[in-house]
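On clarity, I found the account of how folds are encoded harder to follow than it need be. An entry of this sort, consisting of the sequence and the corresponding backbone structure tokens, reads as follows:
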Amino acid sequence: MTRQLLPLPSRITILFRSRGGALFILALAAAAMSALEWRAGNFEGTTARVVVVMGVPLVLTTVGANLRKGVALLWVQKPVDPVRFHLARFAEGALASVVLSVVVVSIFIAVALGSGWKPVTHPLRPVVIDALLAFVMASVGFGFCATLPRGGKLAALALVGVTVVREAFVLPDPSAMDWLRSPLVDMMLFPLTPLIELRATEGMELESLLGPLAWVLCYAAAWVGVGALGIRRAFSRGAWVRLA
């Protein structure tokens, strides 16, 4: 008998319902952050928006929970490729993350404009960059959660934290830690600098955008590949038995 999946809107609705508690907590955190920022005169709500665009993808990343709770046991008995199945789930979660992030960021910008905020660039530009940031975060979360089902989301947050610390931390002797600025480390850490460049570029010149945009997209694709390899490894050699 041929079985059909539920329509995409229904699957997205089920995904939101299954993560309702975590999304509610995230909404409270973002509201508290925005209230503090508005009280301080920062109507753009930068910190609150970062909390949303980085928190929502991690909340909607489900592959780690699925593997850890033994969902893998069901699929070894069915003619379904687990990598394709979880990649499809990732695509749905990434789509939901981007759409929700765009909606929330647009609300923040509308409120900021109504409060007298004067943006330096086009007010919709942050929406595009934050949507890209949400997609990259979803990819990183997918890669980590597929490889480390029991601590993948914390590892993804740790990667972002290490990146922020490296960019913000200034040493008395910078040459003593040159390895932190090596190309290999840049490839591994979160692409914070390219995203900042995309946000700061004036006039949306194509030549100035292609380099950072290509780097960000390749970084996201690499983490999706890591996730696919992690899922394949989890379903080979009986590794899924130890995850359940």
